[in-house]
Write a structure and sequence with these properties.
With 237 residues, the chain is an alpha+beta fold. The protein has one domain: Jelly Rolls (Sandwich), CATH 2.60.120. Strands 1, 2, 3, 9, 10 and 12 form a six-stranded antiparallel sheet that branches. A hairpin with a 7-residue loop joins β1 and β2. The longest helix has 9 residues. The protein is globular, with a radius of gyration of 17 Å.
């Protein structure tokens, strides 16, 4: 995991272990959820996050704010779908938007079952494990009214697959769940996103989810996919 401006990470981040939870009401039969004992990120953990050289752009996490003001949460649907965060400079595919109530440990719902899925991998591009850094990254912008978090595992699927000595070509969320069930240690970084702020992240490489835990107001979040180099939007951390 890499950041373009990691010196301000501590101001809006916290860290927690990830647990495999079974039979949680409203969730899949087994899910990966951050533990409730969030802690501030230490200086040593900051060094761990930024150790070595920066990753290729396709593996980079960026916390951003578009140069143009994003629509409000109560904007018409076509006002959200037609919004271009990149002002025509880079192509992007609008995925859609969702509304999340406050107080949710994780937010993503499997629309076929109505159940939350916890930390997971996206699979829009369905690339094999070795090529996951070539997948499109996801831009998510918090339209408000409340703040929210993005929760990112601190190990990506390539690292997890190596630890498992997995020979599977195409990774799945269940591979991450199995890793933790077999004793693998996974930690999660939570980063606050205020209204108008967002993230660009390799969500097909890093297990992730949104969260509104501890927030008092709901939030609407909109999503785009694309191949963008680092720094196309102003970064906050």
């Amino acid at each position: 995991m890499g950041f373009t401006a990691p010196s301000t990470l501590q101001d809006r981040c916290a860290i927690a272990p990830v647990d495999l939870v079974r039979d949680e009401p409203g969730y899949d039969a087994q899910v990966l959820l951050p533990a409730s004992d969030w802690e501030s990120v230490t200086s040593e953990q900051i060094k761990e996050l930024i150790s070595g050289s920066y990753p290729v752009d396709g593996a980079l996490v960026e916390i951003v704010r578009p140069r143009v003001t994003a629509p409000r949460h109560d904007a018409p649907e076509d006002g959200i779908s037609s919004f271009d965060p990149f002002q025509g400079h880079w192509s992007s595919w609008f995925v859609g938007f969702v509304d999340n109530p406050a107080g949710q440990a994780t937010t993503t719902v499997d629309t076929t079952t109505g159940r939350r899925i916890g930390l997971h991998l996206d699979n829009f591009d369905r690339l094999p494990t070795a090529r996951r850094v070539e997948s499109r990254r996801r831009l998510a912008i918090n339209l408000g009214p409340g703040s929210r978090y993005v929760a990112l595992a601190m190990d990506d699927i390539q690292e997890i697959s190596r630890a498992q000595r997995s020979t599977a070509s195409y990774p799945h969320t269940n591979d991450v769940r199995r890793y933790v069930s077999e004793g693998g240690r996974l930690r999660c970084l939570r980063i606050r996103l205020d209204p108008g702020e967002g993230y660009i992240a390799p969500t097909e490489l890093i297990p992730h989810d949104g969260s509104t835990w501890g927030m008092r107001a709901p939030s609407r979040v909109a999503f785009w996919l694309g191949h963008w180099p680092a720094g196309v939007l102003p970064t906050l951390i």
